[in-house]
Design brief:
alpha/beta, two-stranded antiparallel sheet, elongated
């Protein structure tokens, strides 16, 4: 109220002194983890647009940037050991319009971030006291990756980068040695998926680790 009163006096050009009592304000966020997600897998945002998003987070005192980098509709991060992830998986020929699976925009959509750009974004966020939390899903949400490396799937494909939304049945084959190697070299983070497609590779691995004693199969994650 005192501030409003002084502001009115100044606006009326009364030119009288305004006095404010000195105070100490103790304040802190209610939550230690304050996050926001940007899904660049389904809809790609450029390097500069990501930086702008980070600026918005900093303005609102958000301290975690959840960077959703991969999904069935696109792969957005450069992995030099697996170049086809950006050559093939980063592009889809068109996109479903709204929620109507019979309508498509006919426009190619895609893009990816180089490793140098990813490091720059991590630093840009850190300079604003924001931690980047990247998400690369497995074993589901991997159709884009399977389009580039079909041998990692349970059926062998062929696979295509998805142009529609929803949940795909195709997932990584956990019984495949090449898939496990891929996961160790590339992936972090987990996500749900439909009941696993049981392959011969899976049954062989299950018999080795005796996973069947711990979890009935097939079962969703």
């Amino acid at each position: 109220m005192a501030y409003k009163h002084c502001a009115r006096r100044y606006h009326k050009q009364e030119r009288k002194n305004c006095f404010f009592p000195s105070v100490t304000i103790n304040d802190q966020p209610r939550f230690g983890y304050r996050g926001a997600m940007l899904d660049v897998a389904r809809h790609f945002f450029s390097f500069e647009e990501v930086k702008t998003f980070i600026d918005i987070l900093a303005l609102h005192n958000i301290n975690r940037f959840h960077w959703h980098l991969t999904d069935d509709q696109g792969w957005r991060i450069e992995i030099k050991k697996y170049p086809r992830l950006t050559e093939v998986s980063s592009m889809r020929p068109e996109t479903m319009v709204g929620h109507d699976a019979s309508k498509f925009d006919g426009k190619p959509h895609g893009g990816f971030y180089t490793q140098e750009q990813a490091r720059a974004i991590v630093k840009y966020a850190a300079d604003r006291h924001i931690m980047v939390v990247p998400e690369i899903d497995m074993p589901g949400h991997m159709v884009a990756a399977l389009a580039a490396y079909p041998e990692l799937g349970c059926t062998g494909g062929p696979y295509k980068v998805r142009t529609t939304w929803g949940v795909a049945e195709d997932v990584l084959c956990a019984g495949n040695e090449r898939t496990l190697k891929f996961a160790k070299e590339v992936l972090f983070g987990g996500d749900e998926h439909l009941p696993w497609r049981i392959s011969l590779h899976w049954w062989r691995r299950m018999s080795k680790v005796e996973l069947g004693k711990m979890l009935p199969l097939p079962s969703p994650y």
